[in-house]
Structure formats: C-alpha cells, structure tokens
C-alpha cells in the first residue's frame, strides 16, 4: 500500500496541509468551499513559484495519474465565484470602519493616551527644566593660599581658598575665598545658603580666572605700608 501524498491546498479563502490517497479524484470541495463543478485545479511546485506544472483537467483521473510529489501545491480557483461565497470571507472593502476624531479620543479615559498622561510615560515624562552646561574642571585646591586680582593699583588681596564649585546664586564655577583682611562682602554665605564660614566681610566669591594660587603669606603692617 502506497503512502499518502502530502500536499498544500490553497484557494482564495483557505490554505491547509493535506494528505491524500493517490487513488482519489482531484475534486476537493470539502476543504475549499468551492463546488466541484466550479473548480479549476492546478499543480504548482511551491507557493512561491506560480508556474503551473500540470492542470488537473480530467475529473475522472485519480491524483496518482498526474505524478504528484510531496509538498507540491494544489491551487484551486473558482470558475463561478458569483454562485458561491468565494472571496467574501477575506473581502473587507464593504466593512464599515470605526473612526474617532482626535478630540473625541483625547476625552476618553480608557485610552493609551490617557494612560501615558496619567503615568507620565513617553512624551509626557518629566523633563529637566534646564539642561546644565558642562562644568569645566578648575585646578584650584581647597586650602591653598592665593591672591585675587584687584582693580585698585597697589592693593593686594590675599587669602585662603575655602570653596570651589557651582553655586545657587549664579551659573558656572566660583571660587570662595576667606580674605586675610575685611575686603570681602559676606561671611561665606549668599542668599541664605552657606558655602563656607568666615568672619563677616572676610568672604568673597570670584571667578577662577581672577585667582592666582601660590606662596602668598599674610602681609604684616610694614609690608602693607
């Protein structure tokens, strides 16, 4: 007894893998819904190759007569689709589409948009109010002795570095200095925020390019005079 043929059967509405005895005839209405009298059955090597190998034109001949091979394709066309439902199961051109305006969609409480808004997801995620500029590195060590550039001729403002970094009162990097004498403007605090501590009017904040770090000892009275 010969083993059954394993083939694919395709039609406008169906696709299936089937096993057939080589002695049956070629009409396969049961699997396609196309009446036997309206069927045109072709053999293809594969679904990717539309070339017709042979046409099963004689209804009285069994499948074995056409030398079918495993995994070939039986392509069933409907010669009279108006008399059957062929193509109607896959035709969606007459189906009424559900459409919703953007405004109506925005008002719905069960939509993906509402979920994203409620959970701050995607474009609704919080963003930083400001993008911080890259902060340049400053090679001014805390505790170093320094001298601050002065606009007054002959006036040396010496002190000790107490703070280097960003502040809340202005952008960029600032250097906080405790002067040796009361040439400053604060006690290390600005607008209620403490950056370092020193005596009143001994503290000042300047830009790094105004600061010269080095061996700057405190000046005594004679040197100042």
TrEMBL record:
InterPro entries: CAP-Gly_dom_sf, CAP-Gly_domain, Ubiquitin-like_dom, Ubiquitin-like_domsf. It is found in: Cytoplasm. It holds the Pfam family Ubiquitin_2. GO terms for biological process: cytoplasmic microtubule organization. One of its GO terms (molecular function) is microtubule plus-end binding. It comes from the Eukaryota. Keywords: Chaperone, Cytoplasm. Its main location: cytoplasm. GO terms for cellular component: cell cortex; cytosol; microtubule plus-end; nucleus. Residues 165-207 form the CAP-Gly domain. Belongs to the TBCB family. This is CAP-Gly domain-containing protein. The lineage of its organism: Eukaryota, Fungi, Dikarya, Basidiomycota, Agaricomycotina.
